[in-house]
Write a structure and sequence with these properties.
Layout (H helix, E strand, L loop, with lengths): L1 H17 L18 E4 L3 E5 L4 E5 L5 E4 L10 E7 L4 E6 L4 E5 L4 E4 L1 H4 L8 E7 L2 E6 L2 E6 L4 E7 L1 E2 L2 E2 L4 E5 L2 E6 L2 E6 L12 E5 L2 E2 L2 E7 L2 E7 L4 E7 L4 E9 L1 E7 L2 E6 L2 E5 L5 E6 L9
Antiparallel strand pairs: 1-2, 2-3, 3-4, 5-6, 6-7, 7-8, 9-10, 10-11, 11-12, 13-14, 15-16, 16-17, 17-18, 18-19, 20-21, 21-22, 22-23, 24-25, 25-26, 26-27
């Protein structure tokens, strides 16, 4: 995963310089310089931008762009993620629109969230998977879709003391669905059919301290969380289902945590670092040349 994060950076630079244009009836001349999310499949690397996607073919090194001109349903991508189990690329837009793209490039649009009568922002911040379900973390809460049936399952409007809670990301760990937000880390049992009621969610804390959970993921039998301390410093902690272990108490601001190919990938303000199951650095790309290590 970290390998292709680095590849995407150089591909983006090369792509901007080469100015390749897909030969279609219409051509776009839009900027793709603001890469904001990455998804890796067996054969492709997808990078999301405000305009659409650009795709890097790992076999032949070719690059192409995807926009509303040649297949996508909308502009303003909020997040993308690829389900290895279901062979589906999920594309979430800032207005709540959703595209499902299979390995053959066929796109199926799901506009139910976009059309839903929700007055809050519907921006999709992150996408995670469990079985055939995709969990979309949004500014208003969570939305669940079934990838096989291509239908919406549930929508959870998340509130704390009447305050709207923005969900940064979600993860399934053990018997629970975890929702990460700067207002706290919440969890609800997967087998509970009434998670639309906030009373069925519980908040977790460390030593009585409410967590500002920027990001998190399940990795090697634990739930890892990136906690914001201030504008420049984060903590990294691990939860085994019962108690917390502090992994690092002062690292550059964590932007995302992901798990892939037995690696924990930590994206911070200074770069990207991948760790093995023993939390030893296996790959690292630092924008400042600094080394980020765990305690």
């Amino acid at each position: 995963m970290a390998k292709y994060l680095i590849v995407a950076v150089f591909v983006l630079a090369a792509f901007a310089g080469r100015g390749q244009i897909v030969r279609e009836s219409w051509r776009d001349h839009l900027s793709y310089n603001n890469g904001k999310a990455l998804a890796v499949t067996e054969s492709m690397v997808y990078c999301a931008t405000d305009i659409g996607l650009f795709c890097y073919d790992k076999d032949d090194g070719s690059i192409r762009r995807l926009t509303t001109i040649n297949g996508l349903s909308d502009m303003g991508v909020g997040s993308i993620a690829y389900s290895d189990a279901n062979h589906i690329l999920v594309i979430g837009y800032s207005n709540g629109n959703i595209d499902l793209m299979d390995d053959d490039g066929r796109v199926y649009n799901m506009s139910g969230l976009k059309d839903k009568n929700i007055v809050m922002s519907k921006n999709i911040n992150q996408i995670s998977f469990y079985g055939t379900r995709a969990y979309l973390s949004c500014d208003f809460g969570l939305t669940t879709i079934d990838l096989k049936r291509r239908e919406f399952v549930d929508t959870y409007i998340m509130r704390l003391d009447a305050k709207q809670v923005k969900i940064n990301c979600s993860a399934v760990f053990g018997e629970y669905l975890y929702a990460f937000s700067e207002d706290g880390l919440m969890r609800g049992r997967l087998d509970n059919p009434f998670l639309t009621d906030m009373k069925n969610w519980e908040y977790l804390s460390i030593d009585g301290r409410q967590l500002r959970a920027v990001s998190g993921c399940a990795f090697n039998g634990k739930l890892y969380i990136g906690e914001s301390i201030n504008d420049t410093i984060s903590r990294l902690a691990a939860f085994d289902g019962h108690g917390w272990t502090m992994i690092a108490d002062s690292i550059p601001t964590v932007r995302s945590l992901t798990s892939r190919d037995n690696r924990l990938v930590v994206c911070t303000d200074i770069g990207v670092t991948a760790y093995d199951v023993n939390l030893q650095v296996s790959k690292s790309w630092e924008t400042t040349g600094a080394t980020m290590g765990f305690n």
